[in-house]
Specification:
The protein is globular, with a radius of gyration of 20 Å. It is built from 16 helices and eight strands. The chain is of the alpha/beta class and 367 residues long. Helix 7 packs parallel to helix 9 and helix 14 crosses helix 16. Strands 1-8-5-4-2-3 form a six-stranded parallel beta sheet, sandwiched between helices. Bound molecules: fe (iii) ion. Fe (iii) ion (FE) binds next to helix 7.
C-alpha cells in the first residue's frame, strides 16, 4: 500500500488563535494585501482582530474588500492591480471561500506578472507570494487547500484551478468568527463540509489517511446535526463545525471533489442556489448512485452519521433546507450535459457516470 499526502499549511485552530499565534504572520512579509468581502470580515470580528495584530507586528496593509460571492476573474484582476500598485509582498484572505480563493489567485498572478485570464494556464513559473487564510465560515476548507473556484461568465460555468504551490502558508482558524453567521448560511456551509468529506471518502483518489480525516469530519457533523436541526448554535457546535470544515479541506486537498460538486456548480451559476445548499440537495441521490460501486464505504458513512438508510440522509436534508424547487426536464438535461464534460471529476467518481446517470441524480434531487 503506497500513497501520498501533501499539506504544507501551518494550521492554528481554536478560539483566540490570532492573538496567540499571530506572530507567525509577521515572518511572512512587510506589506500585506488584505482580500475580503464587503461585510463578513468586519461583522465576524476577524478584521478587528487582524487590525490589532497588524499594529502589534508593524505590518503595513491595504484592504481590497470587493470580493462578491462566486467571484469572477474581473474581481481577481482588480485585486491584482491593487497588489501591484501597493507593492504587496503578502496576501491575506479573510472571509468565506470567495475571498480566500481570490487571495490565492492574486498571490500566484502578482509575481508572475500575469493577467487574471492566464490563471488556468500551466506556465506561471514564479512561486506565489505567501498567502494567509483566515476563514469566517465553516464550510469551504479553502484555508487548507491548493484549490480555488471562479465563475467564468463567458462560458457560463464555475471552474476550479489547483496548484500545489497555492496552499496557504498559514491558516488561522478561529470558530468565533462564525458566531454571527445566520442559521441558513451555517447549514449551507456545513453541508458543503459534509459533501467534501463524503466525496473525498468515496473518491477514487481516496487514501487511508484521507479516509481517516474524512470519517472524523463526518463524525463531527453527525455530532452537531441535532443542533443544526434545532437551530441551537452554541460555541461547541461552532467549534466542531469549524474543525470539520478544516478537516474536509484537508481531504479534498488530497482527493479533489467529484460529480456531486460538478453537478452543483450549474445550480449555483444558473439558478443562484448557494454552493453548499446545492450540494446538500444532491447528497442523497449521489449516495444512492455510488452505493453499488462502494457498498461498504456508503454503509460506513451511514453508520457514522447514525443513520440506517440513504432515505434518512434525504430526510435530514429535507428538514435542514428549504424545498428544492423544480426544473424543467430540458434544464436538468442541460446541466447534466455540462457536468458530463468534466472529465477529471468523472474519472475520480467511484462509479462510472453517463450523462443519463447524471441527469437521473438531478431528477431525483429536483424532480
Ligand atoms: Fe465545496
Amino acid at each position: 500500500m503506497a500513497f501520498s499526502f501533501y499539506l504544507p499549511t501551518r494550521v492554528f485552530l481554536g478560539e483566540g488563535v490570532l492573538e496567540e499565534y499571530g506572530d507567525f504572520l509577521g515572518r511572512l512579509g512587510r506589506r500585506a494585501l488584505v482580500v475580503t468581502g464587503r461585510k463578513s470580515a468586519v461583522t465576524s470580528g476577524a478584521m478587528a482582530d487582524f487590525e490589532e495584530l497588524a499594529k502589534r507586528l508593524g505590518l503595513s496593509r491595504v484592504v481590497f474588500d470587493e470580493v462578491p460571492a462566486n467571484p469572477t476573474l474581473e474581481t481577481v484582476a482588480k485585486a491584482v492591480d491593487l497588489a501591484r500598485r501597493e507593492d504587496a509582498d503578502l496576501v491575506i484572505g479573510i472571509g468565506g471561500g470567495s475571498p480566500m480563493d481570490t487571495a490565492k489567485a492574486v498571490a500566484l498572478l502578482v509575481p508572475n506578472r500575469a493577467e487574471a485570464g492566464r490563471l488556468y494556464e500551466a506556465d506561471l513559473p514564479e512561486l506565489p507570494l505567501p498567502m494567509v487564510a483566515i476563514p469566517t465560515t465553516a464550510g469551504t476548507g479553502s484555508e487548507v487547500t491548493q484549490h480555488a473556484v471562479f465563475t467564468l461568465p463567458a462560458k457560463e460555468i464555475k471552474k476550479g484551478f489547483s496548484d500545489d504551490r497555492c496552499f496557504p502558508v498559514l491558516a488561522l482558524v478561529d470558530p468565533r468568527y462564525t458566531y454571527s453567521l445566520p442559521l441558513d448560511i451555517t447549514i449551507d456551509t456545513a453541508l458543503d463540509t459534509l459533501t467534501h468529506a463524503i466525496e473525498g471518502y468515496l473518491s477514487r483518489r481516496a487514501t487511508p489517511l484521507s479516509d481517516t480525516l474524512a470519517l472524523e469530519a463526518i463524525s463531527l457533523f453527525a455530532g452537531q446535526k441535532e443542533a443544526l436541526l434545532a437551530g441551537k448554535l452554541l460555541p461547541a457546535t461552532r467549534r466542531d463545525l469549524m474543525y470539520a470544515a478544516t478537516l474536509g479541506g484537508m481531504v479534498i486537498a488530497q482527493t479533489r471533489t467529484t460529480i456531486l460538486h460538478t453537478l452543483g456548480y450549474p445550480l449555483t451559476y444558473s439558478h443562484d442556489i448557494p454552493h453548499g445548499r446545492a450540494n446538500g440537495y444532491l447528497l442523497a441521490a449521489y449516495l444512492e448512485f455510488i452505493r453499488p460501486a462502494e457498498p461498504v464505504k456508503v454503509d460506513n458513512i451511514l453508520k457514522v452519521l447514525g443513520m440506517a438508510s440513504v432515505e434518512e440522509v434525504a430526510e435530514l436534508t429535507r428538514c435542514l433546507l428549504p424545498p428544492p424547487g423544480k426544473f424543467p426536464e430540458k434544464e436538468l438535461e442541460r446541466m447534466a450535459a455540462l457536468a458530463a464534460t468534466n472529465g477529471s471529476s468523472l474519472a475520480w467518481t467511484a462509479r462510472q457516470a453517463t450523462p443519463a446517470d447524471l441527469c437521473n441524480i438531478l431528477c431525483r434531487s429536483f424532480g
